[in-house]
C-alpha cells in the first residue's frame, strides 16, 4: 500500500507540475509575442535599452515582495492550515497577509515614483540626459503596475495552496496581451513611433497588471472561507510567515539587485547591450520557468504537507523532482548552445532587428545556457529547504552567487566588448558567463547543505548521462536536416510567395520540431523520463473508450 500511495503522490505532483508548466508556457508564449513586437519596432537600439531598464527597476520591487518570496513564506503555512481544515485560521491568516501586502506595495510604488527618477542620472552615467529622462517618465507609470502585480502574487499563493495551478501562472497573458495591443494598435492605426510608442507600451503594462488580477478574482473568492482583511501581526501564522519572508526576500532582493546591477553594467557597454542581454534572457528563462519553476511550484505545497516524513524519503522526492526538471532542461541547454543562432533568427529577425544582431544575441544565450541546468536545479533544491521551513540557507548561498556573478562578469565584459557584429558588441557575453559560473557554485552548495540538514547522503538523479547523449544525438540529426529544410522553405518562398519575414521562423520551427521529437524518441528507447510511446497508447485507449461509449 505504501508503494501505491507513493506512486499516486508522484503522479499527482507530475500532473500539478504539468498544469504549472502549461500555464507558464502560455505566459511565456505571450511574452515572446511581446518581445517580438518590441524587437520589430525598436530592434536592439537605444530605445530598446530604455524599455528594458524601465521594466527592470520596478521588477526588482515586484520580485522582492511578490511571487517567489510570498510562495516560500506563505504557502507552507497556508497549505498546512488548509490541509488540517483549520478554516478560520486560514482565512484570518491570508487576510492579514493581504493587508500587509497592500500597504507594502503602495509604499513601494510611491517611493519608486518619487525618488527613483531622481537617482537615475547617477546610476546610468554613460547615457545621455534624454535617455535617462525617458526612463524616468516610464518608471512613473510602471511603479504603480508593480504594486498591482504584488497582489497578483498573493492570489497565486492562495490558488496554489488549493491545488489550482494553471490560472495563476497563465494570468500574465493578460499583461503581455495589453502591452502588445497598445503598441501594435497605436503604431499601425495611429502611426505612433519612437519615444511616444514606449510611453504607450508602459500604459499598456499598467492596464495589463489590472487585468491580470481581475481574471483571478472569481477563482480566489471560491477558495476563501472565513476571510478577514487586517494587518494583525498577532494573527496565527503571520509572525512565522514574516520571519520566513525576511531571509527569502533578502535573498531574492540580492539576486534581483544583482540582475539590476547586471543591467547597469551592460549600460556601460556599447549601445544596444541592455537590449541584447534582455532578448537572450527571455529565451534563457523560458525552460527555467516552464520546467524548473513548474516542478518547484507543484512540489512546495506537497512537501510542506509532508515535511515530517523520513529525511531519506524527502530527499528521494527532491531527487525525483530534479529528474523531471532535467529531462526537459538538459535538451534546452544543448539546443541553446548549438542551435541558438537559428532560434534567435527565427524569433527576432524582422523589422528593426537585423541579421547582424543575431550572432551577438546567440552568443549571449549560449553563455547563459552553460548555467541553465544548475539554475533550474537550484530552484528545485530551494523548494526542499522551504518545505522544512529553512529559508536562511538558500538566502546565504544566494549572496555568494551574486558577488561571484557580478565580479566575474565585470572582469569579462570589457574584453568581450572589443568584438562586434554590425552595431552590436559582444560585451554582455562576459556578464552571462559570470552568471553561469556562479549558478554552478550555488547549485553545489545547496546540494551539500540539503544533505547535511536532512542527514541524508542520498540525492539520486537518474539518467542525466543518457539525457546528454540523447540531446547531442538530436542536435546532430537537426544539423543533418537543417540545410534541406532551409532549401525547401526557400523554394516555397519562391514558388508560393511565403512572406520573407517568416521564412526564418518556419525553418527554425521545423528544425526544432525534429530536434524535440528526436530527443523524445531516443529517451523513450533508453527508458528514461516521460514516455512518448506510453502517451500515444493512452490517447488510443481514451479514443477507443470514447468510441465504445
Describe the structure.
With about 550 residues, the protein is mainly alpha-helical. It contains 19 helices and two strands. The protein has a two-stranded antiparallel sheet. β1 and β2 form a beta hairpin. α2 runs parallel beside α5 and α17 packs antiparallel against α18. It is globular and about 65 Å long.
Task: List key phrases describing it.
single chain, 549 residues, mainly alpha, two-stranded antiparallel ribbon, 19 helices, 2 strands, 83% helix
A few lines on this structure:
This protein has 549 residues and is mainly α.
Describe the secondary structure blueprint for this structure.
Layout: H1 2-42, H2 46-65, H3 67-83, H4 87-123, H5 129-161, H6 166-170, H7 172-190, H8 194-214, H9 217-223, H10 238-266, H11 273-305, H12 311-348, H13 358-369, H14 372-387, H15 392-416, E1 420-421, E2 424-425, H16 427-453, H17 464-496, H18 503-526, H19 532-548
Antiparallel strand pairs: 1-2
Amino acid at each position: 500500500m505504501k508503494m501505491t500511495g507513493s506512486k499516486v503522490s508522484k503522479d499527482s505532483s507530475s500532473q500539478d507540475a504539468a498544469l504549472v508548466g502549461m500555464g507558464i508556457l502560455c505566459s511565456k508564449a505571450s511574452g515572446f509575442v511581446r518581445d517580438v513586437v518590441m524587437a520589430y519596432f525598436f530592434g536592439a537600439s537605444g530605445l530598446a535599452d530604455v524599455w528594458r531598464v524601465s521594466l527592470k527597476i520596478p521588477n526588482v520591487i515586484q520580485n522582492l515582495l511578490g511571487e517567489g518570496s510570498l510562495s516560500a513564506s506563505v504557502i507552507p503555512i497556508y497549505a498546512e492550515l488548509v490541509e488540517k481544515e483549520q478554516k478560520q485560521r486560514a482565512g484570518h491568516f491570508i487576510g492579514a497577509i493581504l493587508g500587509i501586502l497592500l500597504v507594502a506595495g503602495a509604499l513601494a510604488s510611491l517611493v519608486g515614483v518619487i525618488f527613483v527618477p531622481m537617482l537615475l542620472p547617477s546610476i546610468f552615467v554613460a547615457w545621455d540626459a534624454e535617455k535617462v529622462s525617458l526612463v524616468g517618465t516610464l518608471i512613473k507609470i510602471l511603479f504603480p503596475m508593480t504594486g498591482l502585480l504584488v497582489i497578483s502574487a498573493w492570489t497565486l499563493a492562495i490558488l496554489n495552496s488549493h491545488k489550482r495551478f494553471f490560472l495563476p501562472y497563465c494570468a500574465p497573458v493578460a499583461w503581455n496581451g495589453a502591452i502588445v495591443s497598445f503598441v501594435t494598435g497605436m503604431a499601425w492605426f495611429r502611426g505612433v513611433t519612437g519615444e511616444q510608442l514606449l510611453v504607450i507600451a508602459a500604459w499598456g503594462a499598467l492596464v495589463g497588471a489590472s487585468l491580470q488580477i481581475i481574471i483571478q478574482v472569481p477563482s480566489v473568492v471560491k477558495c476563501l472561507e472565513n476571510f478577514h482583511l487586517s494587518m494583525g501581526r498577532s494573527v496565527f501564522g503571520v509572525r512565522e510567515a514574516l520571519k520566513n519572508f525576511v531571509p527569502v526576500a533578502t535573498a531574492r532582493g540580492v539576486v534581483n539587485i544583482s540582475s539590476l546591477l547586471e543591467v547597469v553594467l551592460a549600460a556601460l557597454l556599447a549601445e544596444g547591450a541592455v537590449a541584447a542581454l534582455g532578448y537572450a534572457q527571455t529565451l534563457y528563462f523560458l525552460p527555467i520557468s516552464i520546467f524548473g519553476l513548474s516542478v518547484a511550484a507543484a512540489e512546495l505545497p506537497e512537501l510542506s504537507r509532508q515535511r515530517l516524513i523520513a529525511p531519506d524519503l524527502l530527499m528521494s522526492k527532491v531527487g525525483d523532482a530534479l529528474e523531471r526538471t532535467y529531462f526537459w532542461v538538459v535538451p534546452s541547454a544543448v539546443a541553446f548552445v548549438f542551435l541558438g543562432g537559428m532560434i534567435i533568427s527565427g524569433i527576432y529577425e524582422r523589422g528593426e532587428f537585423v541579421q547582424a544582431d543575431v550572432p551577438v544575441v546567440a552568443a549571449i544565450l549560449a553563455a547563459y545556457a552553460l548555467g541553465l541546468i544548475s539554475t533550474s536545479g537550484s530552484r528545485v533544491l530551494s523548494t526542499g529547504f522551504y518545505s522544512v521551513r529553512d529559508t536562511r540557507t538558500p538566502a546565504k548561498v544566494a549572496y555568494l552567487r551574486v558577488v561571484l556573478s557580478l565580479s566575474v562578469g565585470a572582469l569579462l565584459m570589457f574584453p568581450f566588448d572589443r568584438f562586434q557584429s554590425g552595431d552590436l558588441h559582444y560585451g554582455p557575453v562576459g556578464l552571462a558567463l559570470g552568471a553561469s559560473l556562479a549558478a554552478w557554485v550555488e547549485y553545489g552548495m545547496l546540494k551539500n547543505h540539503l544533505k547535511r540538514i536532512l542527514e541524508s547522503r542520498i540525492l539520486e538523479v537518474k539518467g542525466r548521462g543518457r539525457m546528454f547523449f540523447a540531446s547531442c544525438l538530436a542536435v546532430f540529426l537537426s544539423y543533418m536536416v537543417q540545410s534541406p529544410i532551409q532549401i525547401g522553405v526557400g523554394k516555397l518562398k519562391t514558388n508560393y510567395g511565403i512572406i520573407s519575414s517568416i521564412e526564418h521562423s518556419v525553418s527554425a520551427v521545423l528544425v526544432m520540431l525534429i530536434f524535440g521529437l528526436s530527443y523524445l524518441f531516443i529517451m523513450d528507447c533508453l527508458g528514461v523520463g516521460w514516455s512518448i510511446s506510453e502517451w500515444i497508447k493512452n490517447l488510443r485507449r481514451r479514443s477507443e473508450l470514447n468510441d465504445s461509449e
